[in-house]
């Protein structure tokens, strides 16, 4: 149970700046997920909080105490590694109790803490096994158990599920969610590149890009009100369509005439001064619906992907713009090569100018 | 020059002969014995494939059998016979009895045990230390190359180098031996006391302390262990207690010894201690080997386990001894046993430096003396059998651990 604060945190390797101006307030009981494209520095940021990487600039505060120069073991954090990082020569019991043994805790106390964590994670039958005699999912649970035993203020997870197969990943994801629920006072920071993990686990998501924070918010905030084109396209799959156009009418509802010939109505309000503004209209594939009337996009379907509950329609790209993708409910494989007109609810049409959403002006 | 051409011819004939054998025997197998045609073509092909590895291994198996397996049995037989004027007479275990009765043999056995304890421990320990210390520094590779270099020197060459280091000239003359040159710098002042009395005594006290601490840790384990565990641990602990006593008495000896300052020493003629001067040569040679293998093993320890240990609050010593060393224990055992086997066979160094005189005899040199100097085949073969009996279990352990490491 801890508040964790990052103030203007920066990281550079010599001349190369990896992260800068990271400001973040994390409150007790939150599960914060860092997402971002590979190489955005999300793991580096986590390792800086852990103390495995030096902080080049700014401050890291845990419960108000500056932690920049405090050794990792005294920061009150515990980390679960992507590769589990279990000690291969120790039994599950010794793996989980190692930190307490190093801290010279009495044996009875260590045994009790290990038993408790093993009960939570259903590892009791495996306590005397070596890690090599465990399955991937069990190893992952031991790694989590090693963190629980230390009773840390902050849990750090570095892509903990990426070494598991798809089915196990879903099961372990749910286990982590339940674990979080069972420990409402613990603060967790979780790094992943998997959107589903981010959306399902996070109380707030931090999107990192270009060495800084692109947006912080609850999963639905990021989905419904993305601040930038980058966040809009990063969250959600397939990515949001961006269609260039020009503002044709302003007011509580904005009308945009699109370069592709369509017309888009958006509930994002604009002022009279915005008339003629070059904007990108953002529509998520799943927000499109077929229409007979005024269309945002119209064209021949190049490829259909029938996934069962939905069908993805890929339109032929016109000019240099990226192909438009729409997601329609049900099986609509018959639409291939047919001309389709698409529209969307104005409340779900986003407007971006210069890469930033007009909502956040 | 006239030696070069026969040598070249031998190489050409040898390699050509091998290629010719593989080609011709393969041809005979495929065309004559099991031809891949006719009604039994499929069966013949699979039979030929089953036979082929043995066909190709045959020359090597024959050569190894002739030069390795046969001599073992012949030596065993010779050790049970007496050679009288070319005639073999079966004498049972008489050769062994005679040998064990001989003081020189018991001396070799004792010295071999000393070598066995000191050289592998020092080589592996120093190698591990160097491997860890040079792991992260910029000039680490340079240091490693320098320490590895003696590996390229033959045992005899190394012996000559070290004989010069131990060389002695009369007092008053310039000492060309490095050790005496250093020794004569000490004249009994404060620094002599600190370096030659206090430091060794402290080191030995430290060793005794570490041993005692390890032993104390085992006392608890002994109390909890079952009967079999107690039987196994008991002698080990007795040995440990004896080593503590030895270290303590040596510490006392080092602190109180009357050192003959100012007189050049004949290092290789100081009884008992001259063994250690010989061992230094082998340690110098083998540390590089241990370092290279252990350095590679240390690099193989997953970085994440080290980071996890840092987060768990381990200090650098705990990371080294409780995370890294246990993970490379298999490699350490392989290195240790490999050096142990080298030590059991040690011959060249003793032969070249003291010839086994002044109580430095070892088994291999004893065997050589008996076989080729005294021409006593019986006792010489018996000595060879003793070496074999000592090497075999260690070799088996070595191969077993190495295979397990490879999996």
TrEMBL record, chain A:
Domain ABC transporter: 4-235
Entry keyword annotation includes Nucleotide-binding: yes
Organism (species): Tabrizicola soli
Signal peptide boundaries: none
Gene3D superfamilies reported in the protein's UniProt record: 2.40.50.100, Nucleic acid-binding proteins, P-loop containing nucleotide triphosphate hydrolases
Protein name as it appears in the record: ABC transporter ATP-binding protein
Protein family: Belongs to the ABC transporter superfamily.
An annotated Gene Ontology molecular function: ATP binding
Keyword ATP-binding annotated: yes
UniProt keyword annotations, A-Z: ATP-binding, Cell inner membrane, Cell membrane, Membrane, Nucleotide-binding, Transport
SMART domains in UniProt: AAA
PANTHER family: MALTODEXTRIN IMPORT ATP-BINDING PROTEIN MSMX, MALTOSE_MALTODEXTRIN IMPORT ATP-BINDING PROTEIN MALK
Matches recorded under InterPro entries: AAA+_ATPase, ABC_transporter-like_ATP-bd, ABC_transporter-like_CS, ABC_transpr_MalK-like, ABC_transpr_MalK/UgpC-like, Mo/tungstate-bd_C_term_dom, NA-bd_OB-fold, OB_MalK-like
UniProtKB/TrEMBL annotation, chain B:
Membrane topology qualifier: Multi-pass membrane protein
Subcellular location: Cell membrane
Domain ABC transmembrane type-1: 109-398
Gene3D superfamilies reported for this sequence: MetI-like
Entry's transmembrane regions: 6-29, 50-70, 113-134, 146-165, 194-216, 237-255, 275-298, 328-347, 377-400
Keyword Transmembrane helix applies: yes
UniProt cross-references to PANTHER family, sorted A to Z: BLL4140 PROTEIN, DIACETYLCHITOBIOSE UPTAKE SYSTEM PERMEASE PROTEIN DASB
Name of this chain's protein: Carbohydrate ABC transporter permease
């Amino acid at each position: 149970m801890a508040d964790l604060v990052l103030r203007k945190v920066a990281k550079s390797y010599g001349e190369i700046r990896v992260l800068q101006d990271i400001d973040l307030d994390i409150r007790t009981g939150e599960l914060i997920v860092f997402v971002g494209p590979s190489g955005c520095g999300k793991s580096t940021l986590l390792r800086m909080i852990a103390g495995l990487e030096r902080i080049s600039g700014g401050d890291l505060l845990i419960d108000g105490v500056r932690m920049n120069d405090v050794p990792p073991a005294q920061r009150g954090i515990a980390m679960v590694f992507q590769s589990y990082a279990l000690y291969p020569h120790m039994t599950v019991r010794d793996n989980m109790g190692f930190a307490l043994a190093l801290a010279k805790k009495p044996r009875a106390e260590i045994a009790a803490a290990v038993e408790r964590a093993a009960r939570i994670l259903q590892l009791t039958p495996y306590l005397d096994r070596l890690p090599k005699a465990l399955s991937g999912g069990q190893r992952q649970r031991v790694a989590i158990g090693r963190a629980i035993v230390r009773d840390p203020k902050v849990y750090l997870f570095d892509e903990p599920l990426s070494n598991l197969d798809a089915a196990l990943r879903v099961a372990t994801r749910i286990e982590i969610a339940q674990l979080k629920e069972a420990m409402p006072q613990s603060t967790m920071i979780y790094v992943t590149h998997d959107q589903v993990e981010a959306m399902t686990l996070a109380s707030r998501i931090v999107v990192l890009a270009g060495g800084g924070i692109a947006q912080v918010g609850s999963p639905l905030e990021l989905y419904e009100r993305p601040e930038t084109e980058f966040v809009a396209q990063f969250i959600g799959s397939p990515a949001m369509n961006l269609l260039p156009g020009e503002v044709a009418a302003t007011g509580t509802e904005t009308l945009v005439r699109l370069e592709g010939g369509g017309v888009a109505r958006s509930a994002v309000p604009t002022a009279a001064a915005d008339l003629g503004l070059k904007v990108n209209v953002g529509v998520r594939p799943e927000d499109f619906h077929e229409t007979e009337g005024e269309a945002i996009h119209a064209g021949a379907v190049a490829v259909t992907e029938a996934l069962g509950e939905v069908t993805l329609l890929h339109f032929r790209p016109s000019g240099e713009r990226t192909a438009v993708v729409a997601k329609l409910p049900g099986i609509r494989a018959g639409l291939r090569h047919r001309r389709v007109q698409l529209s969307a609810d104005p409340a779900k049409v986003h407007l971006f100018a210069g890469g930033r959403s007009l909502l956040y002006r | 020059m006239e030696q070069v051409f026969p040598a070249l011819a031998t190489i050409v004939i040898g390699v050509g002969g091998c290629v010719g054998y593989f080609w011709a025997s393969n041809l005979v197998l495929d065309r004559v014995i099991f031809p891949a045609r006719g009604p039994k073509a499929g069966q013949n092909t699979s039979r030929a494939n089953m036979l082929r590895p043995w066909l190709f291994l045959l020359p090597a198996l024959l050569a190894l059998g002739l030069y390795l397996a046969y001599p073992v049995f012949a030596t065993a037989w010779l050790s049970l016979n007496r050679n009288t004027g070319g005639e073999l007479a079966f004498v049972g275990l008489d050769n062994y009895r005679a040998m064990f009765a001989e003081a020189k043999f018991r001396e070799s056995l004792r010295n071999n045990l000393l070598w066995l304890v000191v050289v592998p421990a020092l080589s592996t320990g120093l190698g591990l230390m160097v491997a860890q210390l040079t792991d992260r520094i910029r000039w680490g590779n340079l240091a490693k190359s320098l320490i590895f270099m003696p590996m390229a020197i033959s045992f005899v060459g190394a012996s000559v180098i070290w004989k010069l280091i131990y060389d002695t000239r009369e007092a008053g003359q310039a000492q060309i031996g490095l050790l005496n040159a250093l020794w004569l710098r000490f004249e009994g002042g404060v620094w002599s006391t600190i370096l030659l009395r206090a430091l060794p005594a402290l080191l030995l006290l430290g060793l005794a302390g570490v041993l005692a601490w390890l032993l104390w840790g085992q006392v608890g384990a002994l109390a909890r262990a079952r009967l079999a565990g107690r039987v196994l641990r008991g002698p080990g602990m007795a040995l440990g207690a004896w080593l503590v006593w030895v270290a303590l008495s040596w510490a006392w000896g080092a602190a109180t010894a009357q050192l003959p300052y100012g007189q050049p020493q004949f290092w290789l003629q100081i009884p008992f201690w001259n063994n250690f001067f010989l061992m230094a040569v082998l340690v110098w040679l083998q540390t590089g080997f241990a370092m290279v293998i252990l350095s590679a093993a240390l690099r193989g320890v997953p970085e994440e386990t080290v980071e996890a240990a840092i987060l768990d609050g381990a200090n650098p010593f705990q990371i080294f001894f409780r995370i890294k060393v246990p993970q490379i224990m298999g490699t350490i055992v392989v290195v240790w046993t490999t050096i142990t086997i080298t030590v059991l066979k040690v011959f060249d160094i003793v032969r070249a430096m003291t010839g086994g005189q002044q109580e430095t005899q070892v088994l291999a040199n004893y065997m050589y003396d008996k076989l080729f100097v005294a021409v006593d085949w019986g006792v010489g073969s018996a000595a060879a059998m003793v070496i074999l009996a000592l090497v075999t279990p260690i070799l088996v352990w070595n191969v077993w651990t190495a295979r397990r490491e490879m999996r």
